[in-house]
Amino acid sequence: MGWSYSGVAVNVALQLAASVVFARLLGAHTIGVFAFGLLVFPPFRFICEFGLGSALVQKQDLASVDVELALSRSVILALITAAAWVLCVHALAPSMHQQQYAPALSCFALVLLCLPLQTLCTAVLTRKLEQKYLQISSLVGYAAGYLSVGVYGALHEWGVWSLMLGFLAQNLIATAILLVHTRLELRLRLKGDAGFLWRFGARAAAINISNWLTSSLDNMAVAWFFGTRPLGVYSVAYGLVRAPADRIVTTLQNVLFPASVLARNDTERLAKGCIAVIDATFLIVAPAFCAVAILSVTIIDALYGSDWRQAAWLLPPLALSMIFHCLTVVVSALLWGSGGVNRDLRIQWCSAAAFLIGVLLAGRVSLVAVAWTVLPVTVLRAAWGMSALVTTVGIAPRRLLSAFLSGLILAALIAPALFWLDGFFQRALLSSIARLSWDVVAAALAWLGLAALLRARIMTPELQTGLRSMLVALKEKHRA
């Protein structure tokens, strides 16, 4: 966890810097073209991976033959999906008015060819809870690949090629680092019992695809109803909150999944861990994203400039949605580890169906209406997931509800104070960058002060016990 969140802090800062630089250098249209590619890419990725990495993490006793079976099947799927991607891009690009960018978007096929090694190396490290090298590969790949190559290309007017080649370089570098560290033996084995890999992998792939639908249908509706430039504006607002949210909870998910697998036979211990994790997650994300919703205009003006003001009206519903998205990801990881994969599968696909209906109706109204459709669907997914977790793990509903108290109180105290403070700074004629800087400092101090002052009264006993255990472990490690 320590390595995970150290990496997350740096990665979020790099992503924010990249988002601001590319938005200012390339403009909404080019950002929209690359966003279109990223929008269509995930299902190909999930079919290529087919949940085989998750199956290796879930397997009780992992042998080298399992890795070889998974690698051989992943390589075959990578070749098939890479060919399918090229065909689909050239077929879909004209209907989305992207035909001139089809050659650049075809480079995503090369990324698919990196995935077999990347997926299996990640699974081996995740199973051992070795987050250090996962974070190193991610950070180095992003900084030396996507950011460096992308900025160089943007400065030399490569257009969408700058983003595409940066993304490819990021995946090549990350894969090479993972392969060198794990020293994975690249042996293919076509014959053998791969039934468990296929069964668990199929359910994992189905859940991943449904998650992609619930996170992408709004972007698809924007691209379909409004075109490339509005998609660029929408993707900037969406990425501004989605990227840090994903970094926070996906990293947590990588730890929770194998940890809950190890603890699933000890139901009381697992229940306490679930409550502590949900309490900690909500305590962080609820005040943070409520603050983003309140300060949306100041954030967009300070980071992207007045030309991107339209994104400020999209930011509040998207920011509030991320609170429940984070809870959904955390609950999903706990369900996978504790034997509730089938329940999670039903939740995700039913939510995706509801979201599809919502965005089709909202797309006929306005861009902002599409953004507001995201919020009720994410609330539905989170609430349904919590209900499934209560049943799977055997947690008393009242115990689980107590995990939301600390986050609600801090959000209710901090968000209104920030609204008043930002208005005061605006009346004092401070620039948007100065206002945002002071707002961030005030929010951080308020969160730290209130959390320390009210800790014993608002945090669950499970989270307090977990924090004390972490402090003891850190002190022992320091002495050692």
Give the mean pLDDT.
79
* SS summary, helix count: 18
The rough form would be described as globular
The structure class reads mainly alpha
Largest sheet features: none
N/C terminus separation = 19 Å
What's the gist of this structure?
This protein is an all-alpha fold and 480 residues long. It is 86% helix and 0% strand. The longest helix has 48 residues, at 2-49.
Could you characterize the architecture of this molecule?
This protein is mostly helical. It folds into two domains: 1-193, no CATH class; 226-480, no CATH class. It has helices spanning 2-49, 52-58, 64-92, 102-105, 108-127, 131-155, 160-182, 195-226, 228-263, 267-294, 296-303, 310-337, 341-362, 367-394, 397-401, 405-427, 432-458, 461-479. 51% of the residues are buried.
Which tags fit this structure?
480 residues, 2 domains, mainly alpha
Secondary-structure map:
Blueprint: H1 2-49, H2 52-58, H3 64-92, H4 102-105, H5 108-127, H6 131-155, H7 160-182, H8 195-226, H9 228-263, H10 267-294, H11 296-303, H12 310-337, H13 341-362, H14 367-394, H15 397-401, H16 405-427, H17 432-458, H18 461-479
